[in-house]
Structure formats: structure tokens, C-alpha cells
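FAQ: What does a multi-protein file look like?

Like this. Sequence, then C-alpha cells, then the next protein.
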Amino acid sequence: MNAATLSSATLVLALASVGSIEAQALRCDCTSIVDTCSANVEAHGSYLDIKTNAKQCARVDYFVDGQPLVSVAMDGEDRRDWPARTASPKIIVQSCQVCRDNGAAAVPGLRSSAAAATRAAGAQPANPSGAQPEKGGLEPLIASMPVYPADARRRRVEGYADVEFTVNALGTVEGAHVTASQPKGTFDEAAVAAVSRWRFAPEQGRAPQTLTKRVDFKLDALDAADSGSSAASLGPRNECVREDAVYNYGDTVDVGLINACSVPLLVFGCAPGTGRYEGRWLCTDSEQEGNVLVPQNDRRLGTRFAADTANGVRSFTYTNGFSVIRAPNSQYWWIACTEQDSTCLSDARDWVRSVGGQPATVDPRDRSRAEVARSN
């Protein structure tokens, strides 16, 4: 591969595990900043080690090779998975803020700060999973998209599954099971697996609530044409990029992106920034991160390869997830190109260069020759 086939841009953020987020949201209320602190972030192979001088909850904003990241450290430390992409990544700590600490002993009986953060941001909980909202019911703070069953996708089958489940006081899902589905049995397992990963706002003393949600399974219209041929891959493939889990931290929102088509994609993204980038567009280049987006069950996942770029030979990895960090109540924009579409890649690179750093009042569509997609 050459530089024309491997250059892209995206806003990438490694998502923390659900369990870690639950503990942080229950104990650490970072919508209330009580002091400042200092922090140090170090890369150790497959993980990042975050340490602060505050022995309570602290929010650390930092950059790793240009990627904006956020960690919530409890008891002065945090650790997050980080696939090693460069031997010595450049790490810049932007800020360290001490959050209100509700105390470890009180975690089981606390109201989630995630719910407070959502209210403070004036935003509704995200629901990118394909599930139909239930009138008057709870809505998930974290809703994962289901994995489309391979056989159903191969046979071009669409349908739905109605899932009944109970939400406990901690906001976790119990007893998920299918009450109706079409075609019967085709999507049951995938729907239950997805709903079981959902997370709702915890609330002290709330009685368990039983809900029923419909999870839809609809194929991408262009999947049928996904043959890998040059004719099928010309032009932006923006419709292939879909949301997975969404994490609302109050002053930032992290959105996980997945590839819903079969062809590998390079994704260029821009979003209104936060912190030092507040009021401006923040765009980053995934070529520097060495990632190419493939579907979640793709056989190429984790495969590394070397390719020539404008800056010499670089190492790339096929991955199944990217993330976008954006300001609350804002939209993000993207252009997705196949590896072989040199025209799309060239247009997308030019778009990122012309939008990045500009005031957020600039319309990203006015800066691109290619079609640009935006979030809802």
C-alpha cells in the first residue's frame, strides 16, 4: 500500500470499561470541581498509567500523540488499556481537577453523577442501539448496538426482537429475555446480549423497574453492493459509520464509532472541542494512530501491517472501534473513505486541514469537495 491508500483522520478516544465507568460515576461527581491538582501520565506498553497528587477523585485531561483523552482517577491513580502504536508516545497533560468525592463506602447507595451530568448539559441520554424508546420509561445512559448475526446478514434478513428486562437501583440490567421477535429466533441472542450491556442512571432507593424495548436489525442499503470493487467503493462511505456506546460525562461526550459495512474504512472526523479547544473545531488524523476501521467480527481484526506514507513506512492495525469526543449538545462530522479511494482520501485530508482549529461557527460542509456526514 502507498500513501494514497493509507491516510485518514478521526477523533480517537479509548473507551473505559463499563465496570470502571460505573464505579467512577457512582463515587466521583466531576460536575462539581472542588480544587485543582497535578497529574502525570506514562505509557507502559499496552496501558497508560495515570497518577495524581489528589488522593480522592480527580479528572485528568491529556493528549497522547495528539489524541484528546480523559481519565477519572480514584485514590490518586487510574489505568486504562492503550494499544502501543509508537515506542515513545508524546503525552501532554492539559489539566487536573479534583472532583467531589462521594466516598468509596457510600458507592452502593449513591445517585449516579452521570445522570446529574446529563441534566447539567441539558442533553437527553443517548440511544444509538436501534431500540425504540418506551413512553414514560427509563432511557439508557450507555446503549450498545447489537452485533448483526452473520448468517442473517449473509441472507439479507432484517427484523426485530422485543426484549424484556429489569433495571435495578444500580442501573444495571437483569433477566433480559425475548418476548417476541421476527423472524422468530433469528435475532434473539444478539438482542439479549446487547441489552444486557446497557447501563441506566443509578438512583438510591429506586424499586426495580421492568421495561420492554424493541431492538431493530436493519441492513445497510449499500452492504449488498459491498464487493470490494473500485466501482463500489468510489466516493465517501459515510453511511457505513454508525454509533455504538455513548458516554456522557457532562462537559464532554464520548461517542464510539463502528463500521457497519464489510469494506475497511479510513474515517476523518471533526467536532466542537472542549477545554483549550472550546469554541473551535478539533480534527485529528488517524494516520498518526495507525488504525483502519473494520467490522466488529472481521477476520482481519488485530492484524498489523506496514505501509508507505508521506512520512515514511508506518505500522497500521485493523481495529473495530473509533471514538469521537465532542462538546455537550453539539454535533460531529465525518468523511469515511475506503483504503483504495485516493480521490476521497485527498478530499478528506484537505477538509480536515481547512476545518481544524477554525471557529465552531464555520460550517464544515463549506470546506469540503466531498460529501460530509453529521450526527443526529
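And here is the next protein:
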Amino acid sequence: MFVVIAGVEKTLLTGDLLTLVKRLQLDRTGVLTVWSAILSNLVSNVPAVLVFKPFISQLNHPQHAWLTLAMSSSIAGNLTVLGSIANLIVIERARHTIKISFLEYLKVGIPLTLLTLWIGVLFLS
């Protein structure tokens, strides 16, 4: 994973990509939160943060962006069963006594994650 991320860092730092990052308005707390939550659920939160790492220093307020990224990538793991290894561990351990389906988890995960991300954005804005 870290070798792939290092390759991405070296190949993606082009002027065109940095222009795209500016155009996406990642300086805005809500925008960075949404992209972080999406990417965190696609590739997990640690690789997502590593993908964002080279771009954070290019933003107008890097310290604020790091706080936003920490908040959103951590909370995003609650969205789906696959969003966090901790979710998988708990569901696997609980399977002997109860059964939690992917859809059952989503019924709680989606509203809980959206609510807590919204609170995080309000707090950081």
C-alpha cells in the first residue's frame, strides 16, 4: 500500500493536478470533508489521507485542512461495514450471537455518519 501511495505522490504532483485541486475548492471545509469521506470509503482512511497529503500544503490554510482531513477521514469509517477494519472485527466477533447484514449496518451508518460529519463541518467552519 505504501509503495503505491509513494508512486502516486511522485506522479500526481503535476501543475495540472494542483490546478484541479484548487478548482475543486478543497480549502472549503465541507468540500474537503465530502471528498475525504468518499475516498476513505473507497480505499480506507489511511490511504485516503496519504493521497491527500501532497495537496494539503498547497492549500491556503494547511493546518485547518489537516484538522478537516483528520475529522472527516476518521468519521467516514462509520458509513459502511467496509469503511473501517474495526467495523469488520466487531461484526466478525459478533456473528456467533447476532447477525448484522450490510444493509442493516447502512441503516444506522449512513445517518450517523452524515450527522457527525455535518457537526464536524459546523465545528471547524
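Q: Is there any per-entry metadata?
A: Some entries carry free-text notes. For the entry above: The CA atoms of residues 45 and 74 lie 7 Å apart.
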